[in-house]
């Protein structure tokens, strides 16, 4: 039976859309195992690995390009130097803040003992390795702390909620990832706007007091592909990581709104349709660097999207619907998949409680899209400026509404590759197909 509130939008006409493609400048590293081998071979700090050492290698909760292959390559290179590697899930409070949940989350990302070729030692137990001047406890994963050496591994990328010299990358992996739930909670204790400060303070203390040998950071291009692998010595790591963050920021894709000579998308959009949200696309489910819907009011907003609808939650997110709150409307699929254990643990640790909220829920994609179109405030709701993307990580292909085509046809690096077509639905799902990504 159709709810009465759905009847209020069911006559809303939806615009025709055309498949489009964006082209971005993009370096590519090629074979991930070879990239790891060459990067480690060229770094003097790798000589800190000695035969017989037990080596903890970090593994986070992000959908890093070639994640299992990169980890397996690092394990192989450590073992080739005579050491005994193991992997430590290093993701703060993610995975429901449980050892089993973090192992399961890695498996969802393709990282298992069989794939990477070494044990995974998961625990939420931590050791206190010091106290900051403000009394904040600095925590370290117990398995990693007991090892003879630690290798940090993470993707270097702009954070979704703060700006600092070190954002998402090796410093954050060290301070928050290896801090587990208790350490992550401490780092977030003074609010999201101060996280960047405490990431640096905690990372520096751990570099001084823990057995960190070096870090391996990856940089990705705008197609979510491995661009290069960098090895950074523990000595001067934070300073060496800072320019890599700026490179990663310049590599990010963007929505085709606003002048290309600006560093990010800018201007206005009536409607954005996001097919899927999930932790493998962004720590916040949808990357605010793309949507400009940030948790912190201190973040600069250049793109204003009147209405945003999210249609589904990726199965690989393991029920963590963190980020649904940034939409105006979601579908019942997201609501039903939304795991409070995973989301609430994440939100209580980060202290960003708005992430736990659910927006208006409509029963299907059709009614959800009709709702955002009807309420978008577009000058002509029968012809809104609308974009549809698969997620906020992969922006090579997108659909654009008829109203946007005049401004997009002559945009450098942009091509309209499909004819205008009606939105197609099956069992309430939007099914206009996506081609294989680049």
List keywords for this structure.
438 residues; alpha/beta; Rossmann fold; eight-stranded mixed sheet; five-stranded mixed sheet; 15 helices; 29% helix
Strand content: 15-25%
CATH class identity of the largest domain: Alpha Beta
Assign the structural class, choosing from mainly alpha, mainly beta, alpha/beta, alpha+beta, or little secondary structure: alpha/beta
Give the mean pLDDT.
91
The CATH architecture term of the largest domain is 3-Layer(aba) Sandwich
Instruction: State the shape.
Output: globular
Radius of gyration: 22 Å
**What separation lies between the terminal Cα atoms?**
42 Å
CATH fold name of the largest domain: Rossmann fold
The number of distinct helices, counting runs of at least 4 residues, comes to 15
Strand order in the largest sheet: 12-11-10-9-13-14-1-15
Q: Unreliable runs, pLDDT <50, ≥5 residues?
A: none
- Most strands sheet: 8 strands, mixed
The amount of helix comes to: 25-40%
What is the total tally of β strands?
Answer: 17
Describe the structure.
- InterPro entries: LarA-like_N.
- It comes from Pseudosulfitobacter pseudonitzschiae.
- Keywords: Plasmid.
- One of its GO terms (molecular function) is lactate racemase activity.
- By secondary structure, the chain is an alpha/beta fold.
- It folds into two domains: 4-24 and 254-430, no CATH class; 32-251, LarA, N-terminal domain (Rossmann fold).
- It is built from 15 helices and 17 strands.
- It has an eight-stranded mixed β-sheet with strand order 12-11-10-9-13-14-1-15. A five-stranded mixed β-sheet has the order 3-2-6-7-8, with helices on both faces.
- It is globular, with a radius of gyration of 22 Å.
- The mean pLDDT is 91.
């Amino acid at each position: 039976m159709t709810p009465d509130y759905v009847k209020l939008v069911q006559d809303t006409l939806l615009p025709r859309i055309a498949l489009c493609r964006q082209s971005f400048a993009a370096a590519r590293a090629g074979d991930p195992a070879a990239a790891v081998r060459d990067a480690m071979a060229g770094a003097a700090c790798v000589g800190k690995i000695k035969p017989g050492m037990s080596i903890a290698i970090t593994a986070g909760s992000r959908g890093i390009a070639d994640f299992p292959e990169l980890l397996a390559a690092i394990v192989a290179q450590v073992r080739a130097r005579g050491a005994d590697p193991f992997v430590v899930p290093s993701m703060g409070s993610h995975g429901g803040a449980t050892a089993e949940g973090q192992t399961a989350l890695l498996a969802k990302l393709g990282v298992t003992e069989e794939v990477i070729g070494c044990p995974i030692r998961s625990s939420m137990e931590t050791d206190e390795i010091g106290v900051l001047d403000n009394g904040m406890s600095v925590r370290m994963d117990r398995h990693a702390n007991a090892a003879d050496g630690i290798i940090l591994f993470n993707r270097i990328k702009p954070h979704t909620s703060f700006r600092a010299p070190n954002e998402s990358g090796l410093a954050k992996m060290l301070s928050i990832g290896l801090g587990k739930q208790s350490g992550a909670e401490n780092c977030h204790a003074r609010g999201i706007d101060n996280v960047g400060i405490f990431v640096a303070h905690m990372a520096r203390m751990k570099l001084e007091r823990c057995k960190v040998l070096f870090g391996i950071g990856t940089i990705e291009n705008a197609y979510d592909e491995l661009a290069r692998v960098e090895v950074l010595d523990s000595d001067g790591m934070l300073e060496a990581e800072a320019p890599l963050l700026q490179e990663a920021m310049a590599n990010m894709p963007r929505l085709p709104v606003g002048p290309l000579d600006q560093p990010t998308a800018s201007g206005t959009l009536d409607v954005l349709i996001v097919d899927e949200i999930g932790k493998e696309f962004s720590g916040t489910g949808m990357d605010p660097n793309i949507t400009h819907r940030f948790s912190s009011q201190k973040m600069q907003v250049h793109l204003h999207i009147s209405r945003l609808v999210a249609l589904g939650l990726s199965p690989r997110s393991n029920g963590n619907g963190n980020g649904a709150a940034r939409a105006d409307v979601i579908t019942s699929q997201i609501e039903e998949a939304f795991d409070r254990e995973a989301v609430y643990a994440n939100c209580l640790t980060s202290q960003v409680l708005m992430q736990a909220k659910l927006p208006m829920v409509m029963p299907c994609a059709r009614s959800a899209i009709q709702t955002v179109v009807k309420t978008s405030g577009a000058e002509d709701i029968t012809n809104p400026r609308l974009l549809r993307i698969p997620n906020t990580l992969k922006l090579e292909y997108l659909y654009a509404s008829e109203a946007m085509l005049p401004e997009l046809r002559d945009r450098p690096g942009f091509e309209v590759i499909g004819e205008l077509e009606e939105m197609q639905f099956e069992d309430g799902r939007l099914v206009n197909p996506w081609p294989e990504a680049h």
